[in-house]
Amino acid sequence: MSIAISRLAETKQIPYYRIAVLQSFDNVMFVVDKEDLEVATSGFPPATTPSNVGEVSPLPERSNVLNILFQYVGTQSHQPVLNQIEFALILKVAEAAEKYKVHKAIVAVQFQLR
Q1: pTM here?
Q2: Domain spans of the chain, in order of start
Q3: What DSSP assignment string belongs to 25-79?
Q4: Which residues touch 19 (CB under 8 Å, ≥6 apart)?
Q5: CATH number assigned to the domain covering 3-112
């Protein structure tokens, strides 16, 4: 089990079975609480979907896109300031937000593109 998985479980006091490990196209791992994914999105399986601890799910997006997208998932108090991000990257985040149905990111990107 990776240090990141252990650290997330310890920090948030969540059981290991609720941890999703998502890998970007450029091989960066993102460790996310499945419950946060379920609450913030409609594009990932429910938190109750069984998986093996440490199972890695590959995603086709690059890490710079997923890094921004996953900031809209969970309980962090701040989201990225999109007006400081280059336009081409915002478009890629918009595509991923629509694909995975990350509701807060969709709203933020729509607001930024006005």
Answers
A1: 0.83
A2: 3-112
A3: TTS-EEEEEHHHHHHHBSSS--TTS---TT-EEE-SS-HHHHHHHHTTSSS-S--
A4: 5, 8, 9, 31, 32, 33, 34, 53
A5: 3.30.710.10
Please write the tens of the pLDDT for every residue from 70-101: 999 877 667 778 888 999 999 999 999 999 99
State both tokens at 59: 């995603």
Tokens of 8: 């997330």
Q: What are phi and psi of 66, to 5 degrees?
A: -65, -35
Bridge partners of residue 32, in order along the sequence: 20
Cα separation, 37 vs 45, in Å, equals 8
| Residue recorded with tokens 């081409």 | 88
